[in-house]
Amino acid sequence: MPDLSHHARQLRAVADALETQSDQTDDLLVPHPDTLEIINGRHTSRGQINYAVPDDLQLQRRIRRFHADHGTQHGDIVALALDAYLRARGYPPHLKPPKADGS
Length: 103
Known about the structure:
By secondary structure, this protein is mainly α. It contains four helices and no strands. The longest helix is centred in the first third of the chain and has 17 residues, at 4-20. The model has no long low-confidence stretch (mean pLDDT 84).
């Protein structure tokens, strides 16, 4: 006879994974609220990301232009675009719960 608690744990893990995925919307480029909270956070640590991309796409020029037109920082433009792309394909981040305030 199978161990029901093992199956219950597996179902809970699947349910937790489904909860972390973004709700499907008509516009997949709408930033996820969790992503916006992280990007807008004052103490968000940042890391460098560097990939070779085709020059013909003119991504650097387009990012600079978007920044000039909208004021969104270069790194935030890249983060928003990559986050939307990966979430839409079923790869949401595994975010840590917010730390409780010690007061």
